[in-house]
Amino acid sequence: MKSKLEIAENWLKRYTGSGVNELGEWILLTNFQDYVDRFAERFNSDVKGIGGPMTSTTNQDGLSIINFGMGSANAATIMDLLSSKKPKGVLMLGKCGGLKKSTDIGHFILPSAAIRGDGTSDDYFPEVVPAMPSFKLHKYVSEILVDHNLEYRTGVVYTTNRRIWEWDERFKRYLRKVRALGIDMETATVFITGLANEIVRGALLLVSDRPMVPEGVKTAESDKQVTKKFAQLHLDVGIQTLTTIEKKGDKIKHFGY
Q1: Model confidence pLDDT, tens digit, residues 41-51
Q2: Strand partners, 201
Q3: What are the angstrom distances between the C-alpha of 59 and each of 39, 72, 146, 230, 243?
Q4: Closest by alpha carbon to 206, among 160, 157, 169?
Q5: Which domains does the chain have, with CATH numbers?
Q6: Are residues 82 and 196 in contact, defined by beta-carbon separation less than 8 angstroms?
Q7: Which of 128, 162, 186, 210 has its CB surrounded by the most CB atoms within 10 Å?
Q8: In angstroms, what CA-CA distances link 21 with 5, 74, 86?
Q9: What are phi and psi of 141, to 5 degrees?
Q10: 117 — alpha (psi -120 to 50), left (phi > 0) or beta?
């Protein structure tokens, strides 16, 4: 195997449990097996890839969801693998920490861009290239959020490859300085690797914690409560967004710089 396409196509099933022809044209990405299980239960679809690095399932209408794991390296891996599929669009459903007083737990963030603190994206483009979503995809997400009267924010999020930083006051001062609205570990990577692979991409983030203050740092119990209260809603918005685009037959084109 000499080409990127050959490698990606061969590896896709090994990583996700689903081959190129088994995945749908529209794909939800997530970090949470719970989301995949909820999706499978709703559509009575089989979960593939159990026991492997990623899992996936696809409904009868050709909508898929993949749990790619956590972190920027995994985000880049799945987007590179999906270059063999060339889906019509990818929407990541992730959680993030809210960095502003105006963002509370349960709010949604629809990022207009992401700061590339992940490191992984540097392997794809120079650091001056902005990490941005496909605007038209986010337009659909926004319309559905408004239709459901859901609280959401737009703005820039910071993507980091650090998992445990909440104790680091110096890093928190830096986050205040860059004026980011939220923080996560994948958004910038998905945006940049989507650009590199010419894949329409977006992200809808659920604010799961407020890590800038000690009492807001995520715990096992607090995360359990967030999942209980908001996970189904988060997933439903993602499903409705991609289903709506597909039913309308709207084509979202990838534009390079």
Answers
A1: 999 999 999 99
A2: 90
A3: 8, 27, 26, 22, 11
A4: 157
A5: 4-248 (3.40.50.1580)
A6: no
A7: 186
A8: 14, 22, 11
A9: -60, -45
A10: alpha
